[in-house]
TrEMBL record, chain A:
A molecular function (GO) term: ATP binding
PROSITE patterns to which the protein is assigned, alphabetical: ABC_TRANSPORTER_1, ABC_TRANSPORTER_2
Protein's cellular compartments: Cell membrane
Gene3D superfamilies: P-loop containing nucleotide triphosphate hydrolases
Topology relative to the membrane: Peripheral membrane protein
Ion transport recorded as keyword: no
Lineage: Bacteria, Bacillati, Actinomycetota, Thermoleophilia, Solirubrobacterales
Keyword S-adenosyl-L-methionine among UniProt keywords: no
Family label: Belongs to the ABC transporter superfamily. Drug exporter-1 (DrugE1) (TC 3.A.1.105) family.
Organism, as annotated: Solirubrobacter deserti
Protein name: ATP-binding cassette domain-containing protein
Domain of life according to the entry: Bacteria
Major localization class: membrane
Keywords tagged on the record: Antibiotic resistance, ATP-binding, Cell membrane, Membrane, Nucleotide-binding, Translocase, Transport
Automatic annotation (TrEMBL), chain B:
Source species taxonomy: Bacteria, Bacillati, Actinomycetota, Thermoleophilia, Solirubrobacterales
Family: Belongs to the ABC-2 integral membrane protein family.
Superkingdom of this protein's organism: Bacteria
Record keyword Transmembrane helix present: yes
Keywords: Cell membrane, Membrane, Transmembrane, Transmembrane helix, Transport
Coiled-coil zones: none
Entry keyword Membrane: yes
Topology relative to the membrane: Multi-pass membrane protein
Protein name (Swiss-Prot/TrEMBL): Transport permease protein
Stored PROSITE patterns: ABC_TM2
Entry-linked InterPro entries: ABC2_TM, ABC2_TM_bact-type, ABC_2_transport, Nod_factor_ABC_transporter
């Protein structure tokens, strides 16, 4: 299958600052591709180049097989973009915003009205459809924003930090919508600074750090690249802790928390081995598999949250 | 659909959007206010003296003299409309959405220009209605009135493109509202309120060579059925020059701001 998005040697600088440095990327159609990185890593710059808002300094970017610099119109006809800042018309109602998009996508009166009704319903905005946007909550605005993007059923959708600034409930709703889109065969290019979001949604994740891709793979592949799996045992007192430590020589002691960390790959066998060797009963027993925070730290040598305002 | 059909349909969509904005946030009151204040002030307060000064009989004669100037003052004030609405659009997120869509490039600006033109013509009609209530009587035939309407529309269209250019040029809404100010003074520095012969020499030269003097004189001729003289074609030349500057400048700046290098 031809690629949905291809980047070859893509570079972009703003003045002295190199934002993207010889970037290569190949995204296959259908499914969610997540670009993960802290603020200032260059995520939005990539999205802006791919959505024809920004010209690269050098290199090639193709969307749906069309060069973004040479054939911007062909690219624009294929894509939809929902950014982190709402791109809605504040003086219109929700319904009028959708109708505006339908008209600009030349859907025709009947189809435009039908599609508007359908999207209002699906995004739970039917009740607010006739109200001005000043009465909308942040989550409602973001849903309307995405509905406007989807009006023409774009085959490639860019979601640039779609849940930044949303409350947890709205975030989960947004994830559900993304899953529905994927089920319908849409290619989603997602950028996020939330490790959990990429883990939840993406089939493939590329980790972007200071303008270069430092890792690329499925969430599971990325996690496998870092050692970090462990079993944590917490004890009621110092005595029990010391006793357990003698039976588990490879464990690391955490005196302050009265806990032991035993390296483990999370398999049943390794858990049983630890339990068999324990003579005193721990208070709690928790299995830690590496999460993407561990991945990010292992890959870049610095924490994602150092630069990111989470 | 062909490119032309797209351009027309997208411009119509953007026009509808602009008119919806206008209904919800009417700026037309501002467009009417200034010219009406000047009309009442000049006719009822200064009218007797000024009327005698131009060799007529009091404020009635002055009313007839000043109405074309006041109508053009209304049209000139309309420049602020597209300047504001375009600059407001550019500061909001929706413009980025428009730019990632396959819509006609000029449609965004055309929508603002046409929408604001409709508003400023409506404002001009209201100002004219007040002038008629105050006793203004033109001496024009039907063709004269139609010619006057056509002239005002053409000037308004040209100035709205200039306003759109100010809107794209401005860094923000604040400066967009200030940029058109000099244009609004031009009717005063022409033959709108007093004949240019009564001005000091240097100002007289400026007054006779700026666009609003032929505009005002042409409108006066059309409304009173007198000879157009050179003012007809001079007005058309100015309309084309101002309109082209506005159109080219607005499109050039918009294009440059659209895809950042």
């Amino acid at each position: 299958m031809p690629s949905a998005i291809e980047l070859e040697g893509l570079s972009k600088s703003f003045g002295e600052k190199v934002v993207l440095d010889q970037l290569d990327l190949d995204v296959s159609p259908a499914g969610v591709f997540a670009l993960l990185g802290p603020n200032g890593a260059g995520k939005t710059t990539i999205v802006h180049i791919l959505s024809t808002l920004l010209r690269p300094d050098s290199g090639v970017a193709r969307v749906g097989g069309h060069d973004v610099v040479a054939q911007p119109e062909a690219v624009r006809a294929l894509i939809g973009l929902t950014g982190q800042f709402s791109a809605v018309d504040n003086l219109l109602t929700g319904e009028e915003n959708l109708r505006l998009m339908a008209d600009l996508r030349h859907l025709g009166r009947k189809e435009g009205a039908r599609r508007t009704r359908e999207l209002l319903e699906r995004f739970d905005l039917t009740e607010a459809a006739g109200k001005p946007l000043s009465t909308y909550s942040g989550g409602m605005r973001r849903r309307l924003d995405l509905a406007m993007t989807l009006i023409s059923r774009p085959s490639i959708v860019f979601l640039d930090e779609p849940t930044t600034g949303l409350d947890p409930r709205s975030r989960v709703e947004m994830w559900q919508i993304v899953r529905e889109l994927v089920a319908a065969g849409t290619t989603i290019f997602l950028t996020t600074q939330y490790l959990e979001e990429a883990d939840q949604l993406a089939d493939r994740i590329a980790v972007l750090d200071r303008g270069t891709i430092v890792a690329d793979g499925t969430p599971a592949e990325l996690k496998r690249r870092v050692p970090g799996g462990r079993i944590r045992l917490e004890f009621s007192d110092e005595h029990a802790l010391t006793h357990a430590a003698t039976t588990l020589p490879d464990a690391t002691r955490d005196d302050a928390a009265l806990a032991l960390d035993v390296p483990s790959d999370g398999s049943f066998a390794s858990i049983r081995a630890v339990m068999d060797r324990l003579e005193s009963e721990p208070l709690t027993f928790t299995i830690h598999t590496p999460d993407l925070d561990d991945v990010f730290f292992a890959l870049t040598g610095h924490e994602a949250t150092q630069e990111a305002a989470r | 659909m062909s490119t032309l059909a797209h351009t027309v349909s997208d411009s119509a969509t953007m026009l509808r959007r602009n008119l919806k904005h206008a209904v919800r946030y009417p700026v037309i009151t501002y467009l009417i206010m200034t010219p009406l204040i000047f009309l009442v002030l000049f006719v009822y307060v200064f009218g007797d003296t000024l009327g005698t000064g131009i060799g007529g009989a009091g404020s009635d004669a002055y009313l007839d003299y000043v109405v074309p100037g006041v109508l053009l003052l209304t049209i000139a004030g309309g420049v602020t409309g597209p300047a504001l609405s375009v600059s407001k659009d550019l500061t909001e997120g929706i413009i980025a959405r428009f730019r990632t869509m396959d819509i006609s490039r000029s449609a965004v600006l055309s929508g603002h220009v046409l929408g604001n033109l409709i508003q400023v013509l409506l404002a001009t009609a209201i100002v004219l209605a007040v002038a008629l209530l105050m006793g203004f009587r033109g001496d024009a035939s039907l063709w004269g009135w139609l010619g006057a309407a056509g002239l005002l529309t053409a000037i308004g269209y040209a100035l709205c493109w200039l306003g759109a250019a100010f809107g794209v040029f401005a860094k923000g809404v604040e400066s967009a509202s200030n940029l058109p100010m000099p244009l609004m003074i031009l009717p005063f520095l022409g033959s709108g309120f007093v004949p240019t012969e009564s001005m000091p020499g240097w100002l007289q030269w400026f007054a006779e060579h700026q666009p609003f003097t032929p505009f005002i004189e042409a409108l006066r001729a059309l409304l009173f059925g007198t000879e157009l003289g050179d003012n007809g074609w001079l007005s058309l030349v100015w309309v084309v020059v101002l309109g082209l500057i506005g159109w080219l400048w607005a499109r050039h700046l918009y294009e440059r701001k659209s895809v950042r290098a």
